């Protein structure tokens, strides 16, 4: 499409808008009917530790949503000379899991508790035993049950429990709805019915019956929808929330709100069985679409679903690139102190490429980038840690490689369960996230960690906002009875270029040496958790 055609498409609403609230950035993208991004906007935000919980202020959620949309709108005006007033469809996605509980008036009862909290260990263990199904600490039902175990005052007043994406959708449409992928991180899904597992729902209700709450679990959870279904329209009030200036029209159709895991699958064309994807950022997760059920319950493996309801084995590491980013920030501070103004992106690229010059096993160095607790290794709290012995080969290349290896350490331990213990077949793994912007480096490290070929598409940097925009487009542009798999393969990704990188044997062997050091050193990390207080003293 040329510039004039794009201008007409925007004016007529022949577009799809996707907005995703990630852990550090809120991004909005507008795509045309060929699925190309024609405008985007974003804003940075950050969680905070408040009263023992990782959270985002409710006001910041709305403000961030508005800022990202406003920047996208300004880009449309700047590039096409028109005011954005409509779209063919809209979709919202956000970080999965967590806890947003509201009363009957719509009041948020406690501050939003994000996926990052590792405060629900007792609840997760009890529910896993009750259901004989792995319930991770970050799941919404674990947060709810922990609040019950803690006898928190707000619990009897709950009228609606949802995720961040579900909250945004409800706020802008009035519908208490959720996409099946996001729902599968709240409560186990029944594959035959595409809804919450009825047996487990009743087991939960029986477990809490003695509390005599005025609600049953099925009454407070959002209704589950599959990809391709329409779930309400943008209300007049919703349009004013998203665009306070008043230009955006109401009545635009919305697709089911999804979690970042689901949009990552869509953005990497990984919804077909035996395919998988890896998403890296503040956290890291790998998702493999399963052909069959796992032989037993593993606390390291979540069972979630694709946006069209297929079961997925998900390994979710709470920590990935945050500590690496902090070290790069320290190097930038040093550069500036020396009088050199350094572009952060260039500095990141230089330092990451330096890791390619390192010893395969990082020269005996060790790091744990745990800013928060890590469920896979059983750490309840985070203590970033760097360790070396006097004999270690301590240089910049090994230092950077260590932090890259450590970023995927917990993920590696979880993925080994799927590939080694369960012999899960994987035809392809697609990778996406900011770490892959530095060509070849992150891809090479992940290939070594998992010992499988890793592909990065030319669209990898578009991320989850593009993924939810694709789901919105699927809702309005799919052919009759067309599946999500065929829509993605035949229309979206048919001509998308990708680069596959096979694992290097020396890198694989080096990572195996490093991961054994990583396993043995967990006792050091646990000691730091036990003895180093929150303020770094003690």
UniProtKB/TrEMBL annotation:
GO molecular function: kinase activity
Keyword Transferase in annotation: yes
Signal peptide stretch: none
Xref: Pfam families: FGGY_C, FGGY_N
Residues covered by the Carbohydrate kinase FGGY C-terminal domain: 277-474
Keywords of the record: Kinase, Transferase
GO-annotated biological processes: carbohydrate metabolic process
Entries under Gene3D superfamilies matching the protein: 3.30.420.40
Carbohydrate kinase FGGY N-terminal domain ranges (all copies): 17-239
Sequence similarity: Belongs to the FGGY kinase family.
Name of this protein: ATPase
